[in-house]
Amino acid sequence: MAILPITVYGDKVLRQKAAPIDQIDDKTIALIRSMFETMHNAYGIGLAANQVASTKSLFIVDLSVMDEYKKEKPITLINPVILDISEETEVMEEGCLSLPNLRADVERPAIIKVKYLDTDENEQIMEADGLLARVILHEYDHLMGKMIPDRVDAKTRKKLQKKLNNIIARKEEIDYPIMQRKL
Ligand code: NI
Question: Distance (Å, rounded) from C-alpha 76 to C-alpha 61?
């Protein structure tokens, strides 16, 4: 296990679509363990593989760092597919470990159904709402090469631009390791 450097906005790997995993081997399990260590170290609640420079189709979620979600178990979603989304949407403020010091309101479907493989290669289908649905959709976006700035309107995006430029130039102060060379 290791704390891995997190890729930041501007790195091309964050724009790449993830490739499905055909075998959950020891290397994949080691990657997942390191991703949890990396995410916990940065106090994140979700992390996608391309945020640690892997193009594999997987992400992890752990809401238990938040007081209201203490009892939630960590989840690993491999080759996830969103099966259904509600018409009803919700707006919530989001952050992202690859967008340090940036926060923005994002509108997303309120309820979702997702299919994925767990680490034992069993197919799981989960319905989620609230924060869990939000984090899953945010991380799923990462696997599609999408990030928060792609989910806000042009006006909001313009407001974020200065911050985005700082992140690209790695000028933001961050208290967790980020990828120092541009990927
Ligand atoms: Ni993110």
Answer: 7
**What's the total number of domains in the chain?**
1
Q: pTM for this one?
A: 0.97
pLDDT for res 181:
81
Residue 167: Cβ-neighbour burial (10 angstroms; 0-12, 13-18, 19+) = buried
Q: Are 129 and 111 contacting, i.e. CB atoms less than 8 angstroms apart?
A: yes
CA of 81 from ligand 1 middle (Å) equals 17
The three-class DSSP label of residue 43 is coil
User: To the nearest 5 percent, what fractions of the chain are helix, strand and coil?
Assistant: 35, 25, 40
Identity of residue 24: I
Tokens 């994140």 — which residue? 44
Residue 177 domain-assigned (yes or no): no
Distance 162 CA to ligand 1 centre (A): 19
Q: Which residues are identified as catalytic?
A: 139
Average pLDDT over residues 18-24: 97
Separation of CA 123 and ligand 1 centre (Å) = 24
Q: How confident is the model at residue 183 (pLDDT cuts 50, 70, 90)?
A: confident
Using the mean position of ligand 1's atoms as its centre, give its distance from the Cα of residue 51 in Å.
8
Q: What is the CATH number of the domain that holds 87?
A: 3.90.45.10
Range of the domain at 112: 12-168
The tokens of 141 are what? 């976006």
Q: Quick check: is 5 in a domain?
A: no
